[in-house]
Amino acid sequence: MAHNYFSRIALIAKVAIANFTIGCLFVMACSISSGQDAASPDQDAAGSNMVTEFKGKLKSFERGVMVVIRDDGTEVMVQPPDSPESFVFVAEAKPMFLQRGMMARFRGTFTAAGAATQAIEKVELFQPLAGNLSGRAREQFVPGIYGERRNRNEPVPQVATVNVVGGILGMDGTGIMIQAGKIPVQAPLTPDVKFEIRFNNLSLAQEGDSVSVEGFYQPPDDTKVKGDRVVVTTDRIYGEPAAAPVRKTRRSRRTADQEAEKGDDKATDDADTESPMPETPMPETTAAE
């Protein structure tokens, strides 16, 4: 009986020691794991990209890379976004800028018969994109008429708001006509209609144009940025009539020279005959007693 009692005591002690050892090992393992987890954010940050957003002025655009002078004066190299839709040049245009065949798009309300129910307030001018487009990009760049999607069994609405995309056929004081795929669409324009250039390239951009960049870089160098969205804007207005230079003939130049000589002679005579400005005596001052 005593032997069995002491055997049980020894067994319980061994189990307790084993459990204590396992517990210590578990605590050590958790501490090591916690240390690794605590260090991992720094390691991840060192090897991951950082998001950036800034504004500046365009300096140059060569070999597919933009050079932008950030507002703080730093020169940043920006690689355009992979998606052409996220790379856009925006400017205002006048009707004189428009040409037959130029691509345009607008949003308007039309009846089932194709008659516009209200005048168009804004027309966007763009250039075609290469490659196969789908989804929203297709509805922006591929000629056609795009409305709300509906089931086949749904009846055609009597009035619907649609996006019209196509080449310009013509425009006058009353409206604009666009070849939207196989369908010509005519719509009136408001008197203060806005024409906006939205080119997905920098063919019209110039040095000094404003640039807005959203992208990312690999730290610590924030002067090399991969663009996620880049917008270039300018205050130039395309299509404004330029002031015609005055053409001078030999006779007009000779007359201008003679008038200039007469003006110089008259100024000399006036300077000789003009009396000098009279001196004005300074008022006397009285010392305070």
Q: How does this structure look, described?
A:
- The protein starts with a helix and ends in a 16-residue tail after the last helix.
- The relative contact order is 0.17.
- It has two domains: 1-39; 54-238, no CATH class.
- Mean pLDDT is 79; it is low at 1-7, 9-46 and 270-289.
- Strand 11 and strand 12 (224-238) form a beta hairpin.
- It contains three helices and twelve strands, in the order αββββββαββββββα.
- With 289 residues, it is α+β, with helices and mostly antiparallel strands.
Provide key terms for this protein.
single chain, 289 residues, alpha+beta, 2 domains, 3 helices, 12 strands, flat, disordered N terminus
Cα shape: flat
Return the string of H and E elements: HEEEEEEHEEEEEEH
Please tally the β strands and state the result.
Answer: 12
Percent of residues in beta strands?
Answer: 35-45%
Domains (count): 2
Mean pLDDT: 79
DSSP helix fraction: 25-40%
How many helices? The count is: 3
Low-pLDDT segments, ≥5 res = 1-7, 9-46, 270-289
End-to-end Cα distance, whole Å, is 132 Å
Biggest sheet layout: 12 strands, mixed
